[in-house]
Every structure is written in structure tokens, then in C-alpha cells.
Specification:
Membrane topology: Multi-pass membrane protein
Mean pLDDT: 87
Low-confidence stretches: 714-725, 735-745
Shape: elongated
Number of helices: 31
Strand content: 5-15%
Domain STAS: 563-685
Helix content: 40-55%
GO molecular function, one term: secondary active sulfate transmembrane transporter activity
Structural class: alpha/beta
Protein name: STAS domain-containing protein
Biased composition (Polar residues): 733-745
Length: 785
Amino acid sequence: MSKNARTKLTKAVLGIDTNARYAHQPKDLEERARAVLGSATAYIEEEPTVAEWLRELVPTRAGVAHYLRTLFPPLFWIPRYNCRWLLGDAVAGITIGLVVVPQAMAYAVLANLTPAYGLYTSFTGAVLYWVFGSSKDIVIGTTAVGSLLVGQVVNRVQEQPGTDFDAQEIAHTLGLLCGGIFFFFGLFRLGWIIEFIPYIPISAFVTAASVTIISTQIPTTLGITGINGQAPPYRVLIDTARLLPTAKLDAAIGLSSIVLLFAIREFCSHMESRQPAHKRAWKFASSLRLTFTILLFTLISFLVHGRGPQISPKFRIVGHIERGFQKIGVPRPKMSLIQMVLPELPAVAIILIIEHIAIAKAMGRLYNYSINPSQEIVALGGANLLSPFMGGYVCTGSFGASAVLSNAGVRTPLAGVFSALVLVLALYALTGVFFYIPKAALSGLIIHAVCNLITPPKSLYKYWQLSPLELLIWVACVAMAIFMSLDYSIYLGIGLSIALLLVGIARAKGGFVGVARSQRVPREAEDAAAGIATTSMATKDVFLQFDRRDSSNPAILLESPYPGVFVYRVHDSYTYINQALHVDILQSHLMENTKRTSDEEYEHESDRPWNDPGPRDKLLSQHLPYLRALVLDFAAVNNIDITTIQGLIDLRNLLDRYAAPDTVEWHFANVQNRWTRKALATAGFGYPTCQNPEALAKWKPLYSIAPISDTPFSAHLGHHRRPFASTIDEENQTPPSFSQSTTPGGTREHTTISAVDRPFFHLDLYDAVDAAVRDARCKDTDGSI
């Protein structure tokens, strides 16, 4: 069916005239352009269609093949694997394995699980990440914050009446749900969604979680019992202070382990600066301080308690740990348990994914490689899906372990396999040693590790310098976590950040701009004195805000482009959220700085509408110009919606009544999005209206032309091509010479840069203002109204 037939059928059946939107568009725009351009060709803009948009969504064969390859990043580097890489990965993997073992055991305690579950979890992340991961420096395993969240979910589910689920079952269900969500987001390449979550709420949450972890571990470090660790941190600290007289021998173990850990770290840091040649060795020694401390206090515990089937502990120890992967199996979560866990899922998922992507991006920036956020989410999803089958719980990237891995000289993600071997060795050969680990020493290790996660004062001062309001959000989030709960903290932070974003968009004012004549000063005064022509001596028009709220020199002289021509710059997005503000600013400014073309006459004054104050005093308005044109700079605008279009239409109608019998010209600069151009053209913008035939006959279009490329699209990117675009106008009817741009066969053909059927959509603000001023000057010269 032809296009005309479809149009007639649509009109007959549905009553929709698809050509009605072009009712006010002049029919001869293309003919007038061809008459002026001469040998240059006229470009007609092709509007985007829904079918075209749908075709862009259909993956190509090459795109599918690329997608499948990117699902398995090792395909890109495994063929080049060599012995030197193997040696580096082995050293780094074994090193990180020694670091992860005590960390994993300690963090499992935060999740209300036995230390063995931390080893199961870290093994899963280590053995699987290299298959899907895109970073060589990431260590997926247990983390303090993730384990704390699991522990809180376990407690909340178990506190519900009639609940008989154990901590292992709850942790496995949470891991499966998180893994499924991550895997879905990663496979469908939805990693961009995490960009909606800003940095400040996450920073506040990590700090608040660190404070919460420290408050819950202090009683264990001191050997104090009878404290509700699930209470808000301020309550836990108060109860701990009240029960200090009941501290036991565990306090000696816990406090001395904390002191020893910090002492080793500071000593190694001092030696790094004293001995730069051995900096890597001292970093390596510092990274093993956790392992050394745990082994030392395990030895002390063994010497104190001795060997035997029955011992009387002098302080609390870890006790029996099952050998090997005793909890391996297929998890079977119950629907009732899933329903209980689901409300807790958003906070846990958000924190795990943000923590992981933040580490991956930081490592990529540090070592000059890029990561794929969506692929990282696939790796995270795979690890969390597999973890419950191995007996573990949720896992994510670890800040501390990743830093140790990168400093150990890792070469590829395959280093995780070597750290997994260390974890297997620990599970099968060292469980007897783990029996004697003091719980106070594990708590001391946790406190030492999370102290590094607290945001330092210098960072808070930087937040204050960058954005004071975001610092207030940070403080509110931390306060909420300390006095309420961590879940409320992350929700509050995200909610306040989104509210701040929306308020900023809603109140983002535009500004009217004026013209300043600028000239670049030559670098060599002698060249200027000698009269040597350089581009630096050229003058050009620059457009600056009249209210001088930009960073330009306020002493610069600004002038209006032309009486009755106004230029308005949109500083931010232009959407339904802020369109009313822009319309109000435009309407009030235009009417205050112009006069009516003709006064509205009423037979009786009482016929005047109640909201019309009547004509202004002619003595006060006689010096004001008539409203001729409005130029909108849409450089900051990408998408536009129906509400915004309707606001522009209403304003246009109001201004046309104000300027009647003349019509106000609307010029748009820097409208790049094709759908935005289509929406504006559908609403009657982008071309002169044919409602005023006399004015339309006198209108003289302006066209910019440029040479046609021999090859399409981006073949000439990066090459400077001369000459620059030429300009043809209908007034002189004389196309410029094209002899400057030639090919081996003769003169190169030229074409218009912009569509001739959208002459009021301009390439840049200079062209838009130039066209508006020329048309306004023409009206004044011809004596048009």
C-alpha cells in the first residue's frame, strides 16, 4: 500500500490526518533552496521512524558473536598466556590466599555463621571469577559490610514469629536471590542502571557499616557477654560501657591483637618511605600482617590450652571446624523463606553491586585498563549463584584483598585459581589449627580491617568544597545508621540524592545572553607589529549571560544582538519538570522588554479580561522594540517530551497574539537529537509559518554548504579539511566560488549542511542569531509590521 493510500485510509477510518502537522509549513521551501543553491544540492532531512528505531534494537550477527565472546573474557587473553604470567599469578594467588583465609573466617562471624562458611564463600569467588571477570585485580569473597548485612537479614528472619529456619538456610536463600538478580542484569547488559546510585550514599553507608561493625565487635574483643548486637550502634556502645567491669581475659587477646596489627602496618609504611628500593617487599610484609597475627595468637592459645579431647578454655576460641566442603549440596529454598527475605533484598543487592563495581573501576583507572560493568555483574552473579551450592553465602569484591592482589604483581585473573588452592588446603589440612583461634583475635582483626573503610576528615572537607548539600546527605545517612538501622540509611541516602537531582533539574534556570566581540591576542607581539596574519588575531562573536552568573569577566561589554531579537540559553535538560519555569522566565522577560505591535481594542473597558492589565503607558514603552524573534540555544537539551512541547506551543501562541499581526520567529540552535527535531517540527517549529503570506514572501533564507565527502560517514575523521563551510543567502543570489575545494577530476560537489526544509534549526548559536537578526532587520528596513 502506498503512502498516500495509507494516509487516506487513516483519515477515513480513524479521523487522523497525518499531514495536518505540516499545514502551516510553506510548500516551496525546497524549490526556493534549489533556486538559490545553483550547482550545490539541497539536503532534505529524513525524519526518524518507529520502524527504524525497532531495527536498531535488533542485534546483528556480528553483534551477537561479539556479545558471546565478551561473556567469556579469557578468550581474549588465554591464547597469549605464558610462563612469566603463570609465575606472577602463582605468587600473587598464594599471597592473597594467605590473606583471605583469616579474613574469611572472621567475616563469617558477622554473618552469624561459623568460620568455615567464610572459607566456602571465598573459595567460590576465587575459583569462578576468572571465567567471567574483566579485571585482573579483583578478589571476590567475603566482605565486612556484606557479612554484616547477611547477619542482619538472618536475625530479622529468625525474629519473625513461627520461624524455624536456621542461619545457613537463610544465607543460602539470600545468596541465590542476589545471584539471580545479578546474572539477569549482567546478561542483559543493564550495568548502566547502577549509575543512578550516586557515590555519597554509598560512602556514607560504608562508614556507617564500619561503625556498626566496630560497635558489635567491641564486646567480643573485651569478652563481654549479654549485649544485644542487633541494637542500633549507639545502644550497643552504651551497653558495652555499662558492662566494662565484666570484661574477661579475652580483652588482653583482643586489644593486643589490634595494637599489633596497627603497629605492623605503621612500621611497614615507615620502612617503605625509608627504603624505597625495598618498597614492594615491605608492602608484601604489611599485607601478611593479618595472617601473622592470627597465627601468633593461635599459637598462644594452643600453648595456654594444650592438646587433648577435653580442654577448659581460658578465653573463647573458635572450636571445632568441619574438615573439607561438608556443606556442599543443592539448596532448596522454601517459598515462605523467599517471601521473608525479599524485603531485605534491595539493600543487600545495591551494596554488593556498588562495592564490586567501585573496586573494579578504581583498579582499572590505577593500572590503565578498562572494565565492563555489565560483565563484572555477570561474574558477581555467577559467584553468588554458585556459592550456596558450595555452602557459602553472598560475596562481592573486597577492597583490602584486591589492593593486596594488585601489589603482589598479579598478571591475569587466573591468580584466583591459586588462591582457591590455598583455601582448599586450609579446609582440608588446617582445620585442627583453626580450633584454637581466639574469637577475640578474630574480632580484633575485623575492627582493624573496617577502620580503613571509615571516611577520613580530609575527604569530608573535600565533599564540603565540592557540594555542601551532599555532605549534609552524608551526615544524615550516617546518623540514620547509628541511631536507626543500616537499611534505612541506604534508602535515605538514595532518596535524598534523587530528590536533590530532581530539584536541581526543576529549578535549573536558563539565561538570556548577549553578544561580546572578542579578539585573541597573538603570542608574538612582533608578528602583530609586522602585520603577519594569524588566526589568533581574528575576531569573533561570543555569547555571554546578561546576568553575569557565569565565570566570564563582569566588566565585558555585552550588547543585544538586535532590537527585538532575544537569545535564551537552556543550561540544563529541558523536560516537563522545568518547562514551566523556562516558560515563565521567557514570557515575563520578553513582555517587559518589548512593546505590543498593536493594542487590543475593546468597545467597552469592561470587556477586557480580568487578567489583562491593559496597555502600558506609551511614554514608558515607546523606546522599547517590537518583538521580532526568539533564539533558543538547545546545546544542553537532548530529549524533549509532550509537556515541554505543549508549553512551547502555548508560549508561541501567546507571543503571536502579543506581536499580531506579525508573527514571532523561533530559531533553534544546536538541536542534535533527530527525535527532538522531529517533535519540534511536528509542533510547527523549525520553519517559517505560512500564516503571514506577505512576511513569508519577504523572508530570505540562509544556507550553509560544504563539500561532499567521497566516502561516507567517518572515513575522514581526524583529517583537517579545507575550506570551511560557505554561505549562500537568497538576498544576493550569488553562490560563492567552489574552486578552493577540488578533486583530481575537477571541482568537488557541494551540499547544504542542514536540511533546507528546516531552515530555523541551525548548526550553532552564531548561525541562529545571524539568521534572526537578518530577518528582523529586513522587516524594519521594509517597514513591515
